[in-house]
Amino acid sequence: MRYKVAVCLLLAIILSVFSIVPKIEAVDENNALTLLGATINPELGALRFGARYTSSRLLEDSSVVSMGILICPMDSLNNELAFMPDGNLESGIENLRAQGISNYLGKKGFSSYSYIDYYVTKSGITIDSVDTVFAVRAYLGYMLSGELYYTYSETITRSYKTVFEKSFPGEKIRVGEAADDYMKGIWISQYDMNALYVNNGVQREKSSYIALVRKMLQNIKHDGFNTVFLHMRPFGDSMYESQFFPVSLYVKGSSGTSISYDPIKIYIEEAKYAGISVHAWINPLRLQTVTEMNSVSDKYLTKQWYNAKNDRIVEVEGRLYLNPAYQEVIGLICNGAAEILDKYDVDGIHIDDYFYPTTSASFDSAAFAKSGYTSLSEFRENNINILVKSLYNTTHSTDKSAVFGVSPAGNLTYLRSTYFIDVAKWCSEDGFIDYILPQIYFGFLHGSCPFAETVDEWASLVTNPKVKYYVGLSGGNAFNAYNGVINAWAVTVEGKYEWINNKDVLKRSFEYIFESKWADGYCFFCYQYLYNPKTGEPTPNLAEEYSNFLPVVTSSTK
Questions:
Q1: Are 406 and 426 in contact (CB under 8 A)?
Q2: What is the CATH number of the domain that holds 223?
Q3: What CA–CA distance (Å, rounded) separates 331 from 322?
Q4: Contact 278, 176 (CB under 8 A)
Q5: Were both Cys, which of 46, 92, 261, 367 would link to 153 (CB 3.0–4.6 Å)?
Q6: Are 38 and 111 in contact (CB under 8 A)?
Q7: What is the total count of domains within the chain?
């Protein structure tokens, strides 16, 4: 009981201190913030008490127009308010909230008047706990290209987005989600991030990492992207300390060891601050090489299966893969996805085209023999369907606001015969995916998969109105063409030399996507084709293609 009394007393002090909103006449932003007692945390990129305001934390070409602390009606917070529901306290909060909204609606400029409107919340623990803390959550309003946006401190959750929308209907808000529904994505692979994660064979110093992440996100924002697909599990490893998978060598420089700070948490915080959505990208079946697996700790289930030689893990040309014929394998994959959703404020789970690595019957012969299936293809298709459906269900049961999608290879001819996946089923029925993002990495003169025809062919598969269709593009062919490398898989002579002879293939690809009435967006592979990840400087290989397509991308109304 004494804890409740102490907590309520603390809250009363907080409310009394900030019950008077100061009027500030003709002072600069630093002084205004000092008088208000709230500034921007330069490390987190968010507002808090007791830190100094740093204008460098703002997005390029943006300016501060408002800032404050939010509070809202009790019923809007879904029981997240950190006080007992006594009338006096509720009344005081409502008065402060009304004052803040009144100031907001007055549209007064930052230099003439700055207001505070409070959110008082608890930090994830019941009020009976001694560890219960009251926290004030802050936001910053900024103007960019004539539009007003808001960004929150890193402790703001999605529930607050709903509250804000109720309080300020019609206003634009950036809480890690795109300002519109049109996907403008970019894949950020482990190879893009390795130079940021690691320096001289060990985890990079934290401040250096933050600086490099900010530069990357600045470039991404500049190029019009609103969504990042961040690689978090490429080879049965993890870019954070996971219960289920060892720490990746791409993060630490060596596999399985602990890390000094969480690079994923930082990346997401910085991305949210920049108004960029983050989806967690995992490869569900692909694991380490045999050599790498030998160094993995026996505490991980993958290593235990490897040691047991029980065909839950199968070797294909020196690389290990999970066998999706077993429910415990699918369970491990889903547990890993749920862990990410529980641990981080990501907006979705994303998998790409690494399904069955071989057509050889030896891969899963034992499981197939016990399955009752007479067709190996049907058996494998069913296994992948179960995997995809399970990941879909895990995503939505763990975070109702998150989405799940798949990025398969773009050549439809080989998907069922080579990868054993039925994309038509996923795109037409409920319960498999929220979006499909085929990798249509082809030129217009490709002999078997010309870009325009392939985009349209995929669009015809998406008959479920609940499933969105995004087009995957790649800078790889243009990047290689800079060095005179032909596209050997393009079949025709014209197709093989298309990227060498033309420097507007990506421009025309974007134009075709924007003109399509079917496409809901696009995603580009990958960052290092556009920029050097370590320096943040543009790559010369894509300079001409980039200069041609960027105006199309940034001027598009979609």
A1: yes
A2: 3.20.20.80
A3: 12
A4: yes
A5: 46
A6: no
A7: 2
Closest CA to 437 of 410, 412, 460: 410
First to last CA, the chain: 56
Closest CA to 473 of 515, 504, 506: 506
- Which one-letter DSSP state was computed for residue 215? H
Identify each DSSP E strand in 330-467 by its residue range: 348-351, 403-406, 435-436
Q: What is the rounded distance in angstroms from the CA atom of residue 373 to the CA atom of residue 375?
A: 6
pLDDT digits (tens, 9 = 90+) for 183-236: 999 999 999 999 999 999 999 999 999 999 999 999 999 999 999 999 999 999
Q: How far, in Å, CA of 510 to CA of 515, rounded?
A: 9
CA 432 to chain centre: 20
User: For the chain, how many residues are written?
Assistant: 558
pLDDT grade, residue 257 (50/70/90)?
confident
Backbone angles phi, psi at 443, to 5 degrees: -85, 175
Assess whether 127 and 217 both reside in one domain. Answer: no
* Surface-to-core class of residue 335, CB atoms within 10 Å of its CB (0-12 exposed, 13-18 middle, 19+ buried): middle
Are 151 and 256 part of one and the same domain? no
User: For residue 314, is it within any domain?
Assistant: no
pTM of this prediction? 0.72
Residue 61: domain span? 2-167
